[in-house]
Specification:
By secondary structure, this protein is mainly α. The protein has 18 helices and 2 strands. This is Lanthionine synthetase C family protein.
């Protein structure tokens, strides 16, 4: 499918908004000291809200000739100002994986020694995480979300390896730049772990046994009261839940990274999501979470679609299902996923709940998801919404405070993500490797 041609006037308007945000993010905020220094260190190494994420914007724009190269060097220096964390709390969005992702995306070939050091640190981190997961499985314990999710867990770390070792070879995409010095066997270990995650937990020590999926977590969701989720829950979102592993397994298969049982694992998760897909006059939707009682009764507590977004809600889950259907060659499931996303984009009742412009929860995430889904879609329906999404995102970007005021740093939850989404939608030569951190492509 070919995306519709962008109106030249709308393209110029979006380009101006993107340039304005880039200028506002030309320099990091002044370094802080004292009690705020620890927070500054966290922000420096964060894709979510920090220097590493902002470097990705300037790196992509430098590669298309829209930003001076000095800007990306400035932000990468800021990201590595403090010792880069490879502790157990590091993940794709923070620490060595985040900084490594930023360096590889924003400045490919610029600092190979630094990138090799980061790759080595990330490989050690992944090895330790896989060993811990194996021990947890042998002990029959349920996984915490942080073991396998995109933000902190092995799905995100797998996405790092995918980004570093396997390019996107589709003819309509500019390939990423793989570095085959990264251990490909480690990537296969991550895929094999996620395949095992989709299977019932052997020798479970709790009362659920094989009655709940292997990705059932005993954790209580953040901000939720314990009584709503006795014994744990399942998260369906792409950021923290099972749609993240699904999208990763599909992207890995698409790029030739496969292990035995991978197709069956993808189908297993798809059948689970098929079961929990709900129908409404406005289209299909999925609950954000499923608790024990909901699993027992086979229906969600949630009575209607929540805020549509990349991280939760229909857009991210539908994209994961679409990717899975494409690699499995499942036409009916692909059509269902694309119909769910298109119906969501056509529903003002859902869209009015989107309150900001950013990637994680806002319009940039919806636009980026639709942009990539449209390129894989069997029909032009999703593509038909792209001009409207571009116009909406441009208008919101124009409302962000003037460049004389400090811009919000970061890719996932900052102004850099808004600018980079606009850049990707109007520049056909823009790098397509950065959406790997969202499992969109």
């Amino acid at each position: 499918m070919t995306a519709p041609t962008v109106d030249p006037g709308e393209r110029d308007r979006a380009a101006a908004a993107c340039e304005r945000l880039s200028v506002a993010l030309a320099e990091p905020a002044r370094p802080v000291t004292g009690d705020d220094a620890r927070g500054r260190r966290w922000h420096g190494q964060s894709l979510y809200r920090g220097a590493a994420g902002t470097a990705v914007l300037h790196g992509v724009r430098a590669q298309t000739g829209d930003d001076p190269p000095a800007r990306v060097r400035t932000w990468l220096t800021e990201a590595t100002r403090e010792d880069v964390s490879a502790a157990s709390t590091a993940g794709l969005w923070f620490g060595a994986p985040a900084v490594g992702f930023a360096v590889a995306t924003a400045a490919p070939g610029l600092c190979p020694a630094t990138l090799q050091q980061l790759d080595t640190a990330v490989a050690r981190l992944i090895g330790a995480r896989l060993d811990a997961a194996e021990a947890r499985i042998v002990a029959g314990r349920r996984p915490p979300l942080a073991e396998f999710d995109l933000v902190r867990g092995l799905t995100g770390l797998g996405a790092y390896l995918l980004h570093r070792t396997h390019s996107d070879s589709r003819p309509d995409r500019q390939p990423s730049r793989p570095d085959h010095g990264v251990d490909g066997d480690l990537a296969r270990r991550v895929v094999a772990y996620l395949v095992q995650l989709t299977e019932p937990l052997p020798r479970a020590v709790d009362e659920f046994g094989a009655d709940v999926p292997g990705w059932w977590s005993g954790a209580v969701p953040s901000g939720e009261t314990a009584h709503r989720y006795p014994g744990g829950h399942i998260d369906l979102g792409i950021a923290h839940g099972i749609s993240g592993p699904l999208a990763f397994l599909a992207l890995a298969m698409r790029r030739g990274l496969t292990v035995p049982g991978q197709a069956e694992a993808i189908d297993r998760v798809c059948r689970f999501l098929d079961h929990w897909r709900q129908n409404s006059p406005a289209g299909a939707w999925w609950p954000e979470r499923i608790g024990r009682n909901e699993l027992h009764h086979g229906r969600p507590r949630q009575t209607g679609p929540a805020r549509p977004s990349w991280c939760y809600g229909t857009p991210g889950i539908a994209r994961a299902c679409q990717l899975a259907a494409v690699v499995l060659g499942d036409t009916a499931r692909q059509q269902a996923a694309e119909r769910a996303l298109a119906d969501c984009l056509d529903d003002p009742g859902q869209l009015r709940n989107v309150l900001d412009a950013r990637l994680c929860h806002g319009w940039a995430g919806i636009a980026a998801t639709a942009w990539h889904a449209a390129h894989d879609a069997a029909t032009d329906r999703i593509a038909g919404y792209l001009p409207r999404l571009l116009s909406k995102l441009t208008a919101l970007a124009e409302q962000i405070p003037a460049p004389s005021q400090p811009a919000r740093e970061g890719l996932i939850d900052g102004d850099a993500g808004i600018a980079l989404t606009l850049q990707s939608m109007i520049t056909t030569t823009a790098s397509v490797s950065w959406p790997t951190c969202l499992l969109l492509a």
